[in-house]
Amino acid sequence: MASQTMKAVNYVGPHKVKVEEVSKPKIEHPDDIIVKVTTSAICGSDLHMYEGRTAAEPGITFGHENMGIVEELGEGVTLLQKGDRVVMPFNVADGRCRNCEEGKTAFCTGVNPGFAGGAYGYVAMGPYRGGKLPRCAASSSKDGMLTFPQGQAQYIRIPYADFNALKLPPGKEHEADFILLADIFPTGWHGVEISGFQPGESIAVFGAGPVGLMAAYSAVLRGASNVFVVDRVPERLAAAAKINAIPIDFSKGDAVEQIIKANGGEVDRSVDAVGYQAVGSGGNKEEPNIVLENMIKVTRACGGLGIPGLYCNVKSYNRYLRDLIIAGRAKPSFVVSHEIGIEDAEVAYEKFDKRIDGYTKVLIHPNGGF
C-alpha cells in the first residue's frame, strides 16, 4: 500500500524549520490535481515567516514556488493529463471572479474569503493548516477544519488546476529555469513593467536578491541602455555583473551619487526589490523608507518607479517568459546558487537568511535529485 504521508518543510518558530512527516494531499474537488513536486524553491518572502516577522504559527508548511509532474486528476480537469509537467504561479486564483476576468489574478476574491488574493504556503494568503477556505479550494485536516496547499513538500494539491497550472515541455530540460516562472522571474519583469520602462532607457534596481536580479535581467532582455543594481552582498553584486548590469555597492558610498555619476545624470526608471527590510549604509538598522527616498532622488522628473511588492499577476507573464526560455532567449537560472534535497532544507534556510556561503537562491528537490 502506498504511503499516506510525505515529507514537508514545516515552521517550528523564529529561525527554525524542520522536515516532518505530514499527510499527503488528496483530491478534494473535481477541479483539483495532485502534483509530485520535482522542484520547489526558498523565496525571500519565506524568510519573513522564518524570521518570526509574521503571524505564522508553528506547523505551517512553507513553499509557494512549485513545479512537478501531474500524478492524479479530478474528474473536472479537462486541459491536463497524468504525466504532464507543470509549474504553478504562486498566486492561487479561481479564474472566475471579476478580478481574474480582468487579468488581476493576484487579487482573486474567490479563494480566500475576506481577502483579495491567495497563495501557496504563505501566512494569511490561505495556506495555513486550519485556515478557513471555500471547500472547493481547501482540503480537510485531521481536526476537520480546512487547509490550503503548500509546496516545500513531496506532493501538492493544485485547486482550479486547468486555470492555475502552466504546461511545460516534457523531460528534465530547463528545470532550474522553469521553477523561476512560479514567482521571481514574472515578479522582476512586473517591477520593470509597472515602472513604465521603454527600450533604450536607463534603470536602477535596488536590491540584488533573486527578485532584484530578475528585474535587472528583465531590463537587459527588454533593451535597457544602462542597468544599475544596488546591494552590498558581494555574491549578489557579482551575479548582477554577469548579466552586464552595473553593480553599485551602497556600503562604499551614497548609491544615488554613484549612479548619477556613472549614468551621466538621473535614470529614467527605478525598481524597489528590497521592501521593508532595507538598511542604510551602516547596515545595522532597518530603514524601510530609504529605498523609496533614493528611487525618487535618482529618477528623472516624469520618469517612473516600479514597486512590485507581493502583488504580481504571474499569469500575465509566465506563458511568455516560458516561451523565451524554451527559445533559448532567457536563462534566469543564473540566480540559482544551490540545489538540495529536502533533508537539507533546515541548513539552507539558516544560510540563506544570514546571506552566507553564497546562498542567493535555493532550489529544493523534495523527491530526490534531478
From TrEMBL:
<dbReference type="Pfam" id="PF08240">
    <property type="entry name" value="ADH_N"/>
</dbReference>
<keyword id="KW-0479">Metal-binding</keyword>
<dbReference type="Pfam" id="PF00107">
    <property type="entry name" value="ADH_zinc_N"/>
</dbReference>
<dbReference type="InterPro" id="IPR036291">
    <property type="entry name" value="NAD(P)-bd_dom_sf"/>
</dbReference>
<keyword id="KW-0560">Oxidoreductase</keyword>
<dbReference type="InterPro" id="IPR013149">
    <property type="entry name" value="ADH-like_C"/>
</dbReference>
<protein>
    <recommendedName>
        <fullName>Alcohol dehydrogenase N-terminal domain-containing protein</fullName>
    </recommendedName>
</protein>
<feature type="domain" description="Alcohol dehydrogenase-like C-terminal">
    <location>
        <begin position="210"/>
        <end position="278"/>
    </location>
</feature>
<keyword id="KW-0520">NAD</keyword>
<dbReference type="InterPro" id="IPR013154">
    <property type="entry name" value="ADH-like_N"/>
</dbReference>
<dbReference type="InterPro" id="IPR002328">
    <property type="entry name" value="ADH_Zn_CS"/>
</dbReference>
<dbReference type="InterPro" id="IPR011032">
    <property type="entry name" value="GroES-like_sf"/>
</dbReference>
<feature type="domain" description="Alcohol dehydrogenase-like N-terminal">
    <location>
        <begin position="30"/>
        <end position="125"/>
    </location>
</feature>
<keyword id="KW-0862">Zinc</keyword>
<comment type="similarity">
    <text>Belongs to the zinc-containing alcohol dehydrogenase family.</text>
</comment>
